[in-house]
Amino acid sequence: MGSQLGSAGLMLVNTLINIYLFLLMLRFLLQASRADYYNPLSQSVVKVTQPVVKPLQGFLRPIGRFDLATLGAGFIIKAISIIAIVQIALGAMPPLGGVAIASLAALASAILKIYFFALIGMIILSWVAPQASHPGAILIFQLVEPIMAPVRKVIPPLGMIDLSPIVVFIAINLIDGIVVGSLTRAAGVSGALVGL
């Protein structure tokens, strides 16, 4: 009974950490796609994530559109959570190289999930409310446009049918399966344990 409660507690903590990691990567992608900073949803994401990003902003400067402080914060939080979970669950210190690789896999996985769900949102919105002015709808379109525009140049819409989301979905699944899968296996830490 006690071990089941402990496992449930670890799963809950890991889920909360993964939600926060999701928000950090959303902040990273919103900045990278130059989404409207003054959008109320963007502001909320920045406010929630600023306490962990701010300490790193002094020495991890952005490179172009890419905010390294946000990536660094996500990496550190995930690495600490993996070490803590493995320590509690197995009573052993995981190899630091494996922790670093698993943390990178978690960041990549979170970014791919954000794009996956944003694409689904974009497709639904394009059917039901193509001219939506809700802040959430605007952010979704701003978030996915940088990855959709290059694909649309190669595969233009066929009349009313836009095939570019299908190509992007396939690319996301390939990257997830090949890159994230390879990183997870190379980490030597259980993917389920670290929340991938």
TrEMBL record:
The chain crosses the membrane at residues 6-30, 68-90, 96-129. It comes from Modicisalibacter xianhensis. This is YggT family protein. InterPro entries: CCB3/YggT (IPR003425). Belongs to the YggT family. The keyword Transmembrane helix applies. Pfam families: CCB3_YggT. GO terms for cellular component: membrane. The keyword Transmembrane applies. Keywords: Membrane, Transmembrane, Transmembrane helix.
